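Section handout 9: paired folding examples.
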Amino acid sequence: MKAEDLKLVVKEKYGEIANQSKTQNETSCCGTSGCCGVDYTIFSESYDKLKGYNPDADLGLGCGIPTEFAQIKEGKTVVDLGSGAGNDCFVARALVGETGKVIGVDMTEAMIEKAKQNASKLNFTNVEFLLGDIENMPIENASTDVVISNCVLNLVPDKEKAFAEIFRILKLGGHLSVSDVVLRGELPEKLKNVAEMYAGCVSGAIQIEKYLEIMKQSGFKNIKVQKEKLIAIPDEILLKYISQTELNQLKTDNVGVISITVYAEK
């Protein structure tokens, strides 16, 4: 599929998810009504005990907790890419305090609307949500101290352009901490080419080595994988797209979908 077509798939799927609660996302097989096959919540981690956590903003769509390692300090400006309903933004806001600023960027109108509603309920004046594309962000050059993102960059067709944009908006000495989905070993072509699996963060993932190399080529230094865990995708989900023989081969080849949290500096 063309990049623009993939983006439309992502916007459609996440627009549907925006109108549901975390509980609904977890109890339907893919986060949207009806059984489409991809479980959007299998990567998520618990935020319950984090300062700033707001349940209304948690749709269970992340694959890590990027703020956990992001070294966010009071008074700083943080940008969250693919901010959804605002979950990571509100956690980041608790870290930057009243004197800092948090900006969420998302390309799905329904998510931006939900995030703004959540911020309004909390009476936050230093959290802003912008409709925009990560490959061409509505953010000024060198204006950001920290960039975070949670299970979103794997959905961006042009990852080189995405990391170039992150580099552009960061101040000299600024850094990123992103949680994302990557691969060890090659996925079958059928999985790579299924748009639904792309929107579910699986077929949009690339090799971990390539992911880190793109960051390096974009100009980032001191790149460190802060956290890593294997994602167990249920067989019944994968069997909707590949045969039992192909699934057995995946396991034999030790091909894995991995959640990582990565730190890097400008």
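Moving on to protein 2 of 2.
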Amino acid sequence: MDFENITPGASTPANWIESRNPAHWTEVIGRFPLSDASAVDAAVCAARAAYDSWRLTPAPRRAEVLYRAAERLSRDKEEFAQLMTREMGKVLIEARGDVQEGVDMLYFIAGEGRRLCGETVPSELMSKFAMSVRAPVGVCALVTPWNFPLAIPSWKIAPALVAGNTVVFKPAEDTPAVAHRFAQLLIDCGLPPGVLNVVHGDGSTGALIVNHPGIDLVSFTGSTDVGRLVAHACAESNKRLSLEMGGKNAIIVMEDADLSLAVDGAVWGAFGTSGQRCTAASRLIVHESVYKPFTDMLAARASALRVGDGLDEDSQVGPVINSAQLDRIHDYTQIGLADGAKLLCGGERVSKGSLADGWFYSPTVFADVAPGMRIAQEEIFGPTTCIIPATSLDNALEIANGVRYGLSSAIYTQNVNIAFRAMRDLSTGIVYVNASTIGAEVHLPFGGTRATGNGHREGGHVLDVFTEWKSLYIDFSGTLQRAQIDA
């Protein structure tokens, strides 16, 4: 795939980045520009120039572009999934799900084009009408990660556009091909020039965008450490900011749980996308009465998972994204061993035969983990999970809430009273009962508490990020009415 410039006014770049297949590192997927300050400025200026025309386009007309894009993406689902697996590594069944999430989000947000609802309320004065409406924010910088290279961009781009904003989009440097192809699809479906602009690059490019004076809003998904830097930069220039950051998610397994179902959920949550999800189930808090049977079942299942190229339909766990992430995951294995955790399976790189030139890591399970160990506190972002014993529901809830993150959590129980206590007391933005920590649906709010984010939500309430509230008062009394004073 060769780069085609889709930012009006941008020049041919001097430097390029290569997108490579993490399952076969010698395979180059495509070449993309490392955008410099002039390219970023061109993208922001194009978005600024297109803003007035786009915000004045009726919202239902803006939504029609998204509807056409949903239709096109649904038609091209397999093409996108194949490209995603080659570029990011996740197994095909998951790549298809990633694309489907983009389809779902486009359809969902297209419907909002006729429901950008405000409120009408009674005025406190006679012959006066009061209401509120949503207005676009302006030029939005959207910075997305590599683990969901189509779904997460769709979460941000679609609502930003339907609300009447224009966009500067920077995808992760590890997955430029999928993101660029998605942006081109949107443009092909009718976006006017300058409404959606793509810049490619690494963190330095992201910093140029975040600090650009022509940006009104930044929506960032990535690590908590980088998100903190973005927050500082936005505070300096008073930019509106939405952050979606890390997670250290727990599944609680109570003594009355269906253990087979709980193990299914743990395997899916811990090793889906090779553990490279902010919602991954990296902690399994298991009641002591079922600790041994659960542990034995999970270790057997994890050991039997097939690691391989995601394009192979028999593969269950694909590669991790790059060599640096592979090293990070293995470093955490050594940390866990040094802290006294018991390694049940995995804990090693996989590099034999056809996997020799890829970044593969074996599904890893630690048992007898103390809640304060680093592997139970820090986000690993790989196919590693740890089992922590608990003596009671109160103890399990205390452990689950005892991390700095608050994204997703789950509990397996047949007791409705326990389930409702957990739903009330788990301090996370998402709670599942008898399901894993992954699997959010696009029409519900997505986001977390504490170090996971800054309070905004994507998905169901995402328009609150990409719109401003405007209050309107219409006085038809023909006289001067003074609120509060003349009441």
